[in-house]
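Example A, followed by Example B.
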Amino acid sequence: MRTSSFFGQLRSAYASEIDDMTFDSEGKNVLRQRLAARRKELTFLRQMMELSPEMVSVVFHQGFRFKNPALIEHLLSLESDEFPAWDTLSDSIVLEPWAQQLADELCKEPMGEWLLTVAAGLEYLFAKPERASAKDHGDEDEDDEDSEKDADNSMDGEDEEEKDARAREEAGQDWMVEQGFDRKD
């Protein structure tokens, strides 16, 4: 499975969000409670859809079932401006009833369907870490020559992508501080 630079960058941020929410300071698993609280904040979180989609996407954690993995894996190879319309994916992605309610609310926003697509991709990657990370580092199906070409081509936009990733991370950390959490170092 090949992932685009967009999903490649957001994948670790999404996993970090889930990890940060999983345990409290005493080591107790509080993921369920924190997800419930985050889902209640969806009205506020909407304003972060474009800047920090991973922070909003976590509200859909464990809310997707994937009927057509090949379609999702193709989606993961696309950049954010190449996503298909949500309704073309919705036959292959089943939302849990609670997640469907959130999706219906979110789709009222101009970027709501885009965020659902991002959330589905991130959740799929999160559930399949061994397959995603193997391809991120290159596997036997990809020869070294192609990898070198991809690396050379990606150098051109790397600075801009890194700036965007840092800006999203910083905005996410600012939001967490506003919510009363300590800033990550």
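Example B, a separate protein, is given below in the same form.
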Amino acid sequence: MNIVLLYSPAPRQVREWALVLPSGSTVAQALQASGVVAEFPELMSGSLLAGIWGRKTSLKQILQEGDRLEIYRPLRVDPKVARRERFNSQGVKKSGLFARKRAGAKAGY
């Protein structure tokens, strides 16, 4: 069966492997067959997160024909914290609902 394995080691970089595996192969077997762990040893330092077509899965999951197996990097910054910092740096009057104020309108409308 044909599988596509994707991994992004850094922002705006995507590595792709096209694999041909026997039917009944698992996610762990696909990772071994691709050699991605040998090329990127930092994957084994923490818990490896993988998904099929954007949905998290375990390493024991059996793959099907045409699956797109993805390896996820851990987030460096919590998205809520990043949004809060971005909002603080832009200021209240330049972002969100208050970005475009009508002339003569009350504050906040």
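On Example B: Helices lie at 27-34, 36-39, 79-90.
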